[in-house]
Design goal:
This protein has about 725 residues and is an all-alpha fold. It is built from 27 helices and six strands. The strands form three sheets. The chain has a two-stranded antiparallel sheet. A two-stranded antiparallel ribbon has the order 3-4. Strands 5-6 form a two-stranded antiparallel sheet. β5 and β6 form a beta hairpin. α19 packs antiparallel against α20, α22 runs antiparallel to α26 and α22 packs parallel to α27. It is globular and about 85 Å long.
Length: about 725
């Protein structure tokens, strides 16, 4: 671009071939000779740009002629679907030889499965499933009922998956997932896709029975036309097609059943999931029959069971549809990897379907956290979120205020209290809904969102305090109503604080899973986690005490004995004891790391860029802004850890405390396999760290040959000390 007048006129060697108005005093001009001359004079690292072409404009510009960046560059053989069809890229029938036609159809089915798994992993629909020309022109396949029924069920499945992810709003993680790029995802007759598939399945089943029938019965079945002409391949090809069609049918049923309101279709979905897994295993076994002798056993990077390239696909055909964004180069998942992906997806969906739909927030959060450990993909997490929140209600049936009252250990009658109509209380309900949605996202997205909502939970606590004071003042002339409202306010405020500290602990824990902390920062992180868990335990204890007060009042009415009441007071819930195990491990690791820093001068923040104080601020900035906990600063951390030593640590071994509590809890969780696994992990961490602690003290803290490192071999966020001698 150049300014009209002096600069354009000054270019003697050339004149613009065309001038297009592009703003005040500006025209387009051919600057190629000028750029060539400038390139000869430029040294390495130098740049040249016009006054009206800033760095921002340069970064926002599109690179042309680069296949990875320019969607308009010639990347394929065909410019359009029609041109591809005219050149025979997707023939119908695929072959006039029926045997070859069936084999090629199976290849198309297998490649579509690989494309579908690749799409689920985050690539665009246009460059994966809809790289199939048969899908882009579905009407052409009407003359091929087998291929037509399969393509139609694939399209309906895509539409169902996009609907789930869009409704759950988790597609923000992968913004390309729900983009259809103007492709046709619905059409006339899609509602009959299952009946069409069932008809094809029935025909194939008859053909399979006919080829397996003994010779004495074949005369009766002679009117059934075989699938293809080679009778030696008939049974194997029929079985290969049937398992692929049945998998499609059952998978579509899974998606539809799981969308039924209030979890009514979960049991039916589990039956279809079992059928899907069975058919996937049969699809896997069909490889032995279908594999091509030319390719042998090498199918690790192949997208079909036979190993052949499928007919009717062009991954570059839809590149121009993604013009608003640079087309990403993709590698389609192999056929084996696609099967493994769907097996994991179905197992994740089965876990969701087996969930008891517990009404307690505490148990829901525990379930979601355990579910996230298997690293479920976007589709499974979207289904989980839609199960939890439907029409702004828990499971589509329980009002959020009733859920809050239950979580705050309030009597059932309080769920109908008029205070639920208060604006601030409704905002609290919105925060809880948002929290349940956030914990269903991937852990990176989840941690970022949890850090942001901490401030919202602190603010809502202050607003609730003000609201409850105002309501209580208005009810001062009605003592009975005042008592109910006072109790409700006390319970809800305690629960809000408990939930806030749970969010803070989850925020810190996810940092370990995302590997955001270096070993030199473990000490401060475990210390902060210890402080947060202590506060969380305090709030849970206050909630238990408040709940016991209610039970005492009921007990007096029923004339319970004072001895029974005392026994109830001293019963610590098993979940609280499990939290105490985590507190012991966090404190033990804090003191062990602090002792190593103080006495061996290791695991210290001595980098050239950020001081330890700056790193503390960077890691805990969001917690500090929310005052979680109050008066917790870097200087508090330094004061707590500066006097730590192994002589003190060996006397007050918190690892042994964690081990002891974990053993005592086994009877309480014998029917809960997930919590039993957690107790086992806690015991392993505690035992290994106790051994490491004793070894360091026995060999000698200052022994230079002693090397100590930390690894997460037994627990996702509680490290184990590994002691070696060099």
């Amino acid at each position: 671009m150049a300014e009209a007048g002096s600069e354009v006129d000054g270019c003697d060697n050339h004149s613009p071939t065309a001038s297009i108005s592009s703003g005040e005093n500006t025209v387009w001009a051919d600057v190629s000779p000028l750029l060539i001359a400038a390139c000869k004079d430029l040294q390495d690292g130098e740049l040249i740009h016009g006054e009206n072409f800033s760095l921002f404009a340069a970064m926002s510009a599109l690179e042309i002629m680069d296949p990875k960046m320019d969607s308009g560059v010639d990347n394929g053989r065909y410019y359009s679907v029609d041109e591809a069809i005219e050149n025979g890229a997707a023939p119908v029938p695929i072959s006039f030889d029926k045997t070859i036609d069936v084999q090629c159809t199976i290849d198309i089915m297998d490649h579509l499965l690989s494309c579908e798994a690749t799409w689920h992993k985050g690539h665009s629909l246009a460059q994966t499933i809809f790289s199939c020309i048969y899908l882009l022109r579905l009407d052409r396949t009407l003359a091929h009922p087998l291929l037509h029924s399969y393509c139609r069920i694939i399209r309906s499945t895509c539409n169902a998956v996009i609907s789930v992810v869009s409704d759950a709003r988790t597609h923000e993680e992968e913004d390309l997932f729900t983009m259809a790029y103007g492709l046709t995802l619905t059409g006339d007759g899609d509602d009959k896709c299952l009946s069409l598939l069932n008809a094809i399945e029935e025909t194939l089943s008859r053909q399979l029975r006919a080829c397996k029938a003994p010779s004495s019965k074949r005369r009766v079945l002679e009117d059934i036309e075989p699938l293809q002409n080679n009778l030696a391949l008939e049974e194997g090809l029929c079985k290969a097609l049937l398992c692929r069609l049945r998998f499609r049918k059952h998978f579509y049923h899974v998606l539809i059943s799981m969308r039924r309101p209030q979890g009514r279709g979960l049991e039916l979905a589990r039956k279809h999931i079992s059928s899907c897994l069975l058919e996937l295993e049969r699809i896997r076994k069909s490889w032995e029959f279908l594999r091509d002798k030319v390719f042998g056993d090498n199918i690790e990077d192949r997208t079909t069971a036979s190993g052949r390239q499928p007919i009717g696909f062009d991954p570059n055909l839809n590149l121009r549809l993604s013009a608003p964004t640079p087309p990403r180069s993709i590698k389609t998942l192999s056929w084996i990897k696609a099967i493994e992906y769907f097996e994991k997806l179905l197992n994740d969906l089965d876990i969701i379907c087996s969930f008891s739909m517990d009404p307690l927030v505490e148990n829901i959060l525990w379930f979601v956290v355990q579910f996230q450990k298997s690293q479920p993909d976007l589709v499974a997490r979207s289904h989980l979120q839609l199960l939890l929140i439907q029409d702004a209600k828990l499971y589509g049936r329980d009002s959020i205020f009733a859920v809050i009252c239950r979580a705050a250990a309030l009597p059932e009658v309080t769920k109908d209290h008029d205070i639920q109509k208060d604006e601030v209380v409704m905002q609290l309900g919105g925060l809880l809904i948002n929290l349940l949605k956030i914990v269903c996202t991937n852990i990176a997205w989840q941690r970022r969102k949890l850090g942001k909502i901490l401030h919202d939970w602190r603010v809502i606590h202050m607003q609730l305090e003000f609201t409850f004071k105002k309501v209580l003042a208005e009810m001062s002339s009605f003592p009975s109503e005042e008592n109910v409202c006072m109790r409700l306010a006390k319970h809800i405020l305690i629960w809000v604080e408990e939930q806030t500290y749970w969010i803070a602990s989850r925020f810190l824990i996810l940092g370990f899973e995302l590997e955001l902390y270096s070993p030199s920062e473990y000490c401060m992180v475990y210390w902060y986690l210890y402080v947060i868990l202590i506060k969380l335990a305090e709030k849970i204890h206050l909630k238990v005490v408040a709940a016991n007060d209610i039970s005492k009042r009921k007990g007096k009415k029923k004339r319970d004995s004072s001895m029974e009441l005392r026994q109830k007071d001293y019963q610590i819930p098993p979940t609280d004891s499990l939290l105490q195990c985590h507190i012991c491990l966090a404190e033990g690791l804090t003191m062990m790391l602090a002792s190593l820093r103080n006495e061996r001068k290791v695991f210290q923040c001595l980098g050239p860029f950020n001081t330890e104080d700056e790193r503390f601020s960077q890691h805990f900035e969001l917690l500090q802004k929310a005052w979680l906990p109050e008066y917790t600063t870097y200087f508090t951390f330094r004061e707590y850890t500066s006097r730590a030593s192994f002589s003190t640590l060996i006397m007050y071994n918190r690892f042994k405390d964690a081990q002891r509590i974990a053993k005592e809890l086994k009877d309480s969780f014998e029917n809960d396999p997930e919590k039993m696994d957690e107790l086992k992990r806690i015991e392993q961490v505690a035992e290994h760290n106790s051994i490491a602690l004793n070894l360091i003290c026995r060999v000698g803290v200052i022994d230079p040959s002693l090397k100590v490192s930390f690894e997460f071999s037994h627990h996702p966020y509680f490290a184990v000390a590994v002691v070696k001698r060099s």
